[in-house]
Hints:
The chain is an alpha/beta fold and 315 residues long. Helices cover 48% and strands 10% of the residues. The two termini are 32 Å apart.
Amino acid sequence: xxxxxxxxxxxxxxxxxxxxxxxxxxxxxxxxxxxxxxxxxxxxxxxxxxxxxxxxxxxxxxxxxxxxxxxxxxxxxxxxxxxxxxxxxxxxxxxxxxxxxxxxxxxxxxxxxxxxxxxxxxxxxxxxxxxxxxxxxxxxxxxxxxxxxxxxxxxxxxxxxxxxxxxxxxxxxxxxxxxxxxxxxxxxxxxxxxxxxxxxxxxxxxxxxxxxxxxxxxxxxxxxxxxxxxxxxxxxxxxxxxxxxxxxxxxxxxxxxxxxxxxxxxxxxxxxxxxxxxxxxxxxxxxxxxxxxxxxxxxxxxxxxxxxxxxxxxx
Length: 315
């Protein structure tokens, strides 16, 4: 079974990827938080640092691009090619209001004519350079029925993998996933499919596989894999339990690595707090300690709360 790690802006950068890969592993592809190329700037210094192969040794990383302009995509693709990348992912799924207002991410799904032209131009270039382009998409912007026309568009191009989050843009990440639309993709897609969305446990995966009458493979995990970093082990049958000693190692590695590159102290704590908004689901009965941790403004306060939680695991 192949598992892909979805990009989460502000969380799954190279420091996180390296720590996760070393401590947990069992992820077949990591996708970078999106690169947003602009006029005369295909990659910012920060984006370049995040995807620099020297910062991602031993990691199968796929850079993700967010744009609605083919010339910007192609210029970024040239830079990525020169860095040694042979696969790029196109983001057509980001539901952010500021992103969609610019016609990017899920906002691009509204203009199917421009999207077709865009895909024709980027696949023409990337095909000539031997670069594979996968697509991460939602079902549409306002209505899941939009997906039928989008599927016809994707079928017209050599999409290396179509990663589908079965929600429309206006769903954001709330409510039930729209299973019937992914079932439509299973019946009609001409390219390999990857399922993404609402897998937080082995049961979630099993229920979805039962619904679709097939073993979903590959799957892309994002929030579920951050919340329980052992989830990839569980789905691959390597372990059936959350590995709390590994989680402690992941916490410590990230905490100390962020301290090396960030200042002042509060910025490191903001970073760790964000991770704990995911990890807290693993620590039932520790709500008071987690609340104290999320309010910590000094390393000492944070460490007292964090290590008290980590020492106990589940009550």
